């Protein structure tokens, strides 16, 4: 009999979805109308042995309590801050995620956002579309990247991939995270505040957790300054969003380029109304190739678990 899997969200890869159906008995929560989910889940929960979730959705202690036989939570994404790891540890439930396979695409988006902010691409697109260019209105110059400092908060796989891309544009790179990384030639700042003070662009690539909640606060934004730009492709929880909006409104921060937000998909109207922001809808890994690779790693972890093999990417 196939193991029963509760699927919180679909993979964009049809091949991945076909593999899930081939190897498991899947219960698709995402297909159920919101008003019917509670009753539906009660009817299927008793035999569910695995949960397939995402980094954004995760799984709560209350949800786990509804699943008495669950043995593994497979997260389609890197972040596990939305997974109640205390609850999974207490019950000995394995947790996996999908590191590595999305590094390049997320780093690519970080540089895309940085470049879009630096060269004011959304504003220039609007300038052309509205006929301002044809009307002979002046265009304000932007600033070159060469020689500017890209500070990177969080220097794991993605942070290091951002560094390589920034260096290719002639930028100087520094990083900060509490633990120094051995074997890298990028200088480490003494603190996040010191990194912001030294940076023209601050790219946030640290994991979301209680320890990193609102670490990019008003003081850090003030240190980045009126010519500085914040780029966030990590988690919205790392940034004090109210302080960010205030800094952007008062122009004590130059710009922000954001792929993640505190309460996704709800983005504050104040933020959406600003002209010194670039906004994307949490799409760092949203390419055909990467979403397939992520989904494949989820399938491979589930198959390994139920065949008694070591997990490929377990979360400690």
Computed structural class: alpha/beta
- CATH fold naming of the largest domain: Rossmann fold
Give the end-to-end Cα distance, rounded to a whole number of Å: 29 Å
Provide the β-strand percentage band.
15-25%
Backbone CA Rg = 22 Å
Broad shape: globular
Mean pLDDT: 97
Q: How many strands, which pairing sense, and closed or not: the largest β-sheet?
A: 6 strands, parallel
Main β-sheet, spatial strand arrangement? 7-6-8-9-10-11
Uncertain spans, ≥5 residues at pLDDT below 50? none
Binned, the helix content reads 25-40%
Number of helical stretches of at least 4 residues: 12
Number of domains: 2
Number of strands: 11
CATH architecture of the largest domain: 3-Layer(aba) Sandwich
CATH first level of the largest domain: Alpha Beta
SSE pattern, N- to C-terminal? EHEHEHEHEHHEHEHEHEHEHEH
**The CATH homologous superfamily of the largest domain:** NAD(P)-binding Rossmann-like Domain
């Amino acid at each position: 009999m196939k193991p029963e899997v509760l699927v919180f969200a679909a993979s964009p890869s049809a091949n991945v979805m076909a593999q899930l159906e081939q190897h498991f008995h899947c219960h698709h929560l995402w297909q159920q109308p919101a008003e019917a989910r509670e009753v539906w889940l009660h009817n299927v929960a008793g035999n569910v042995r695995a949960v397939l979730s995402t980094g954004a959705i995760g799984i709560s202690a209350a949800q786990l309590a509804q699943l008495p036989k669950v043995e593994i939570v497979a997260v389609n994404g890197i972040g596990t801050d939305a997974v109640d790891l205390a609850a999974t540890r207490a019950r000995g439930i394995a947790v996996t995620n999908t590191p590595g396979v999305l590094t390049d695409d997320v780093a690519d988006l970080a540089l895309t956002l940085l470049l879009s902010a630096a060269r004011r691409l959304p504003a220039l697109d609007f300038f052309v579309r509205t006929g301002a260019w044809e009307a002979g209105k002046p265009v304000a110059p932007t600033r070159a990247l060469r020689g500017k400092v890209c500070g990177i908060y969080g220097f794991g796989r993605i942070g290091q991939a951002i560094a390589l891309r920034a260096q290719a544009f002639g930028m100087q790179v520094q990083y900060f995270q509490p633990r120094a990384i051995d074997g890298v030639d990028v200088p480490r700042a003494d603190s996040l505040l010191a990194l912001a003070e030294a940076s023209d662009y601050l790219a946030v690539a640290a994991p979301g957790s209680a320890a990193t909640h609102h670490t990019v606060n008003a003081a850090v934004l003030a240190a980045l300054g009126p010519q500085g730009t914040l780029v966030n492709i990590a988690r919205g929880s790392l940034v004090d969003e109210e302080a960010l909006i205030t800094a952007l409104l008062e122009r004590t921060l130059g710009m922000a380029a954001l792929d993640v937000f505190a309460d996704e998909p709800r983005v504050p109207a104040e933020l959406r109304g600003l002209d010194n922001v670039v906004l994307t809808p949490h799409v760092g890994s949203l390419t055909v190739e990467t979403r397939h690779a992520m989904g494949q790693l989820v399938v491979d972890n589930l198959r390994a678990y139920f065949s008694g093999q070591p997990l490929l990417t377990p979360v400690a």
